[in-house]
Structure formats: C-alpha cells, structure tokens
Amino acid sequence: MSSKNLKNQNNKKTKSPLKFLYNKEILYLIIIGTVGLVIRLYYFPFNIPIIDDGIDYFSYAVVSSQQGQLPVNWGLSNNGWPVFLSYFFSIFNSQNFLEFTYLQRSLTIIISVLTIIPVYFLCKRFVNKKIAIISTTLFVFEPRIIINSLIGITEPAYILLGTISLFLFLSKRFSIILISFFTLALCSIIRYEGFLLFIPFVIIFFIRFRKDKKIIKKIFLIMGIFFLTIAPMMFSMYEATGNDGIISPIFGGMNYVVGVGVEGNLDMEDSNYDSDEGKGKLLIFMTVGLINLLKYMGWILIPTFVFFVPLGFFIIIKKRDFKTVTIFLFGIVMLIPALYTYGRGIEETRYLYIIFPVLCILASLTIEKISKKFRKENLIFIIIISAIIFSSVMFLDSKKMDYEHERESYLIAKDITNIAGGINHYSPDSKYIHIAEISNKWPIIPLPPKEENYNQLFDIKKISPEKYSSLNDYIKNSKEKGLTHLVIKKEGNHVKFLEDIFYNEEKYPYLIKEYDSSEYGFNFKIKMYKIDYIQFENFINNNLE
Fold it and tell me: What are the residue ranges spanned by the domains of the chain?
C-alpha cells in the first residue's frame, strides 16, 4: 500500500462519525455505563409504585406540571428535583399512573449512570486513566448507588451536580472555576445541604489565588454567579410558601441544635432522650449522631470500598496540596447534614452517598499502589473489576425485594381504598395505601396546606394501634379518629392483639369481614373487617356484666 493510500485511509478514520470510539477511555466509559444501565434495568421494579419520599416528589412534580407554577403553601424540602421532574411530566402523555412513576425512576437511573463521567475525570486528577476507570467502576456498580437510583428521589442528581462542582473547582482556569459555582448552585437547589459547600469553596479559592491582583473582583463574580442562580428558585419558593427553601432550612437546623443545647428540646421518643432535664441533651444528641455516623460510614464501605478506602486515606493525608484539602473539606462538610440527621434518630445510609466520589478517589490511590507491585497490571485490573461486579451483584441479590409480594401489596391496597374509610397501620404493607388512593384518583393529586397535615388530605386515615394495650381500647379510642375497618395479615402483624383475629374471627361478632385477598387469587393473605360500633358497644357491655 502506497503512503498516499495509507494517508487517505487514516483521514477516513479521522473523519468517521464514530471516531471517538478510537479513544480507549471513552470506549471503556461507554462499556461501563452500558453494563451499569443494564444492571439497573434488571432490578427495575415494574408494576410497583414509588413510595416514601419518592411519592412526595412525584406528587409535587405532578401538581407543578398541572398548574405551571410551584404549588402554593406546599413547603416541600428540596423541591429542585420535583421541579426538574415536572418539565418531563408536562410533555409526557399517559393515562397510566405507574408509567409516570416509571419516567421518574428512569430519569434517576440515567442520571446515576451519567455520573460516571465526572467521577472518572475527578479521579483522573489524582491517578492515571486506567486507575480512574477502575474507580469509576467502583461507583457505577456500588450496590447502594444502584438501589438508590431506582426509587426516584434526589440523590442521583445531587451526587451528579456535587461531583461536577468538585471536579470543576479543582481546575486551574478561573472560567472553569466560575462554572463550578454555577453547578454548585444547581446542587443546592436539588438539596439545600449543597449550600454548605459555598463558604468553604470561597475560602479555598481565596487562599489559592490570594496573590492575584483581581482576587476581590473574582470573588464577587463567583458569589454573583452562585446567588443569581439560586435566587429565582428561592424567590419562587418564598412567594409560594413564605420559605425560601434553601437558606431557611439550614438556619432551621441550626436553631434546632441551639434549642437542644440551650433549652433541651428534643422531638424524639428514643430512650436516649428520656431525661426531663435539658442539661446534657446536646452532648447526647452529638454522641448519638457521631456513633450512628461512624456506624453507617463503616456500613457503606461494604462490600467493595472496605478493601480500598482505609489505605487510600493514609496515602492521601501525606499530600499537602490544595486538591487534598479541597476533597477533605468537601467530605467533612457533606458529613455535617448526616451527623445532624443521625442525631435526630433518622438512620438511613443515603445521607452519606454524596461522599462516594471522595471514596472513589481514596480507593483509586490504593489501587494505584497495589498495581505498582505487580508486573501483570492488566490482569490485576481485570481481577479487581470482576470482583467489584461480582460483589455488587451478590449484595444486590441479598437486598432484592420480593417483587411479587410488593406488587400484590399495592393491588390489595387499591382494593382496600375502595372500601374503607379509616384503617389500622399494617406495616410495612400499609405504605401503599395513600399511593393506591392517588392511583385511584389519578390524575387528581391532593395538595396539602402544610406538610405535617399531609395525612389529613386523604380519604383513608391510618390510625396506629401500637400504643394501645388491647383491641377494645384501640377500637374505643379510635372511633373519633375515623377508624372504620381493621386490616389483618395472616402473619407479621406488629401488634399482638390483632394476631388472633385472622384465625378466630368468630370470636369477634362486631367485626364483619368485607375483604379476603385469597378470594382474588393473591398469595399475600390479608383480610379486612368492618367495625360495627353498635355491636361493639353491646359486646363490651355484655362482657362487663
């Protein structure tokens, strides 16, 4: 082949629309992202609605898309995600309630997978390309990140924007750093905790470029970019609710901690807080928070990070550059909301997911050190990646929900909402009651005047039986609260006095069976009884004679 022909062939390769595939790192990222997406789709909970925080974001997004504005008097924390979601809802056309929840889950899945891009480039600021690829693999196959991406809540977008902000902030170019404050503002809109990074970032920027003659001008510029970005959402939120939704919650948390320390205020029933005295409650609050923080920090390292992060921590503390200081401050500041939350008795690992990119950096340093000790570097990489995927899948399978049970729980809840007016909690399956009510009324979404009154907006009231010592006491004291029916599971009832009803319903003449899941072919055995209060009163009186 002549040199001319060879040159022409090379030119053809260069001009190919798929020329980016010749870049190995891009090709690897595409492969990793594709496999990560496939795994997420494999565990996708079809025919099961979103629950807990996810349904709150869903409802807010639906109402926002229907009204074309923020819902008035609905002070939902972290409303940036549902506002973003509302734009997709407004152009999505379906009469099926579940299909809208699929869209919500699909967006968080896509966002979660796309996060591999900033994670890769962030890690590449500390290690070489190959190691950065492995660190990216750690993130995309982290089982908790996978599970979290399936439930349609804020963390995927929060992590994506937080990671982009961190990566851009480490740049040497002011224009790129300026963009980092824009993405940090978006991060704060998604979850207000992101605002906590603003001051440390400004301080680090000042120290880093303090010799720049235009430093003050540049600081005002980055502050302007940040606040101009968050201002529209803050203003809109204040107009709708009287609360700016970003700065107010932070001060609210600070006031809570001050109240605990000064006045001894605590809003929990935890045994740790039984004392009537205010003294020492701040210490207890911090101790409980710190213990839980350390506990869950250790827990999130399992199954894969536990092998890489500890050594990586000792490697990085030997460095003294601004990159090290920045990621440490990022990690510490992002742990403050978790410490606060754990101190209040809320124990969920998801408050720690924002630091996973930092854990990836620490892990990458360990992997780099290990690889240098072996000649067959590529083999070591293959072994590590295979181990990551294998351990992740094993963890996911161990935590995999019973999809059939959850599906039946939802369908049974839909039946119950068509019959009952007020029921007992039958945890955990009663979590689908209000969701089923939304589904039955779709596309009408109840709009709460206040978050704390959310339960009051639904036709079906859920009255907890757990604080009562007997069935009679529970029924007698719950009539005025709206209790009309008892929902009894075959097994797994958390209150002992309810257990006997399922098998010995004839002992309770005042209970009229109106629903039996067995009659509809469900494997989940559950019965519902209407309370005849006249018969109940007669029964009580007869037993007293």
Answer: 30-399, 403-544
